[in-house]
């Protein structure tokens, strides 16, 4: 039926479509359809007729772009390609044929085993290293498409073992990759033989294959440890980089195994020895090796505390040997009976003589590894060092205390990403540490950072940490308040920070209450301004501390108690419940179920209410949405749905919707009401998230009713053309019917009548459609709004920016651009790509811009975002200062954007109240 309606709706334009369509386009489409069908016959036929290798190569390069084979053509095509492979003498052409086999094998209906067998047979007869390598690459790709139980996998494995004896390094590397990916049996020892290859690329490939086997679940033998440790001193960085991973894997797998310490009779744990060897790579000349070493150190969580302590100390250690005192060494000489006779030179020399090759200018073992990593010249190494230090500190509380000073020093790093990572790392390990005064000074110094991410990260870190003394607490609060003067946009983040500080430090806050609140024992101090952000910060701190310290309640003055009642209502998430004398009780809903039950009772009461009483429910719903935020979304949806019905009834009550108006004022009134009704329908469609199929069906059917009313008004009450409106209405009927059928929703009486009437029309012209819709609209009755679920949310935003006044307007040079810093919180955003920033000037010019994707940050998975961006303001000279309005809005889809021309509706839906800035462009000063 939908297709039938579409055909009738476009019937009067049928001749135009035939004239506009160019005749050449049909020919082009037919040629495109023939190309895939002729690819296997034409191109392979051309391949047989090629006289030179160059011509054959050109044909082979063109085949993959258009190759589409049928299932019955695979065998013949493969046979022809094999014949051509055997006839060619040029290695490049033969290699391309093998690559083409790989492309054919990846097609949907291809017989992978058959193609793999063909490739293996061709490769076994080949002598060119280039062709063999290409064939092995094709087999490697095709082997991933074979089932694990296939016998072909065993053949591939045997072929790879055979070609391991090849002299070409590229062939060996591919064979090693094949063996590692097939994972047939225990191949560790077979691969380990190639870690001593004379070619560094083969050694690297062997190491990578061992890593691949370990990641695939095959346990590496501990006997490999001594062999791979030799490769730590390899001349090539690609080998050293991979060897570090194997040493780390073996250390974590066999952590408790004992290994002998060089030049000593002592033994140590394998993971400690591996940890020390990886730490030595911190001094490597290659940045990549240092970066890999730092990443691996963070995964070795079972290392002993002694080794971890060495990483923070730059003093030279003796290769894990125990140092003996002078008294111990003298006693050993006495007990051994060995005395110097004086007849032999240097017979009384110390036994522990050091060779010149054993002395290194760099630190040995784990000595100072993290100190070196945190001071590295490359940002990648420093960032990996911070991550590793954090991971080890979380697993070892004692190490967290020792590493605190080093992490705090990273707050002064020159790269913002490293500073943020250091702050987040200290936040993660905050439950292990207590901040001292000297550490807090460095931390609070970072609050002056220009980056809002750094400042908010510090706020989260201070909220999670524990302070040692009341002086630290006072220093922290003073720095936060001073920072709030410089960066007023950090107000909410600062309040959340002081809330957690007060909750965790009740005992430290108690002696500071008189100083913080300005309480004097003899004199009455002036009452502070409760709207002052600094004073609110102090109140949030004190009230949260008083939650766990009842003694503090007796210190509050009368105005402090009044301010508590005010903040408890305005900032309930930041101020806890306290039992204070003479305070106003804050009525909180006992549970979210109580508000939901009240909402559903109001909705059910609408079914028996008279039309005049329905409008009286709107203030109750609005109040309920403000009281209980958990049901604000459903309450707002029902409020908007009822408002649409009230407005629809108001329009239908006046007969001007289907007849000419007597005056212009009456005509404008009905036109404005229709525009407002269509705007409300679009808001219900775009601004609510979490709607289920029943609510979406109700919105679509009501929108169809509003479009029908507007079409009848244009046809009956105006002399405007309704062809485009009629076409748009027919499309909406098709879309609504399709949605109802797909979701199995029963249409309401009006929608059912529209579908029946439209199916009987022979020609969907505006006049005929309007005559059919008029009686249906005249009998429209108000329906009960749907019962939405609790998860429904309305998209809205809060926009914060600089404050201006007529006494202090923002000034900029006319013709140039002024950037206004904006901080917005957006809730329930469906599609971030539809978000727009609107700047409205006093001369009614409006500019829209798309915020950068990096400026929009997701807060959670429920469609909440935070926008940190700049609004660009530019204009010519004004005679006096005026207000510029900045707001956030959502752009409608392309299908609904046409409604601006047809219905006069603004295609942008506002999400917040405009931010008004008092702006004055200054004229350009001409130089002398």
Write a brief caption for the model:
With 928 residues, the protein is an alpha+beta fold.
Observed structural traits:
8% strand, four-stranded antiparallel beta sheet, alpha+beta, 56% helix
SSE blueprint and pairings:
Layout: H1 2-9, H2 14-20, H3 23-49, H4 53-66, H5 74-87, H6 91-105, H7 112-124, H8 129-143, H9 151-163, H10 169-182, H11 188-192, H12 200-215, H13 224-230, H14 237-253, E1 258-260, E2 267-269, H15 270-280, H16 287-297, H17 305-310, H18 326-336, H19 369-374, H20 379-395, H21 397-409, H22 416-428, H23 437-445, H24 452-464, H25 470-486, H26 491-504, H27 506-509, H28 513-517, H29 533-546, H30 558-570, H31 592-605, H32 611-614, H33 617-627, H34 632-653, H35 664-686, E3 688-689, H36 693-717, H37 723-743, H38 749-760, H39 766-778, E4 793-794, E5 796-800, E6 810-813, E7 818-827, E8 835-840, E9 846-849, E10 856-858, E11 865-873, E12 882-891, H40 894-897, H41 899-903, E13 908-910, E14 915-922
Parallel strand pairs: 6-14
Antiparallel strand pairs: 1-2, 3-4, 5-7, 7-11, 8-9, 8-12, 10-11, 12-13, 12-14
Helix pairs in contact: 1-37, 3-4, 3-5, 4-6, 5-6, 6-7, 6-8, 7-8, 8-10, 9-10, 10-12, 12-14, 13-14, 14-15, 14-16, 16-20, 20-21, 20-22, 22-24, 23-25, 24-26, 25-26, 25-29, 26-29, 33-34, 34-35, 35-36, 36-37, 36-39, 38-39
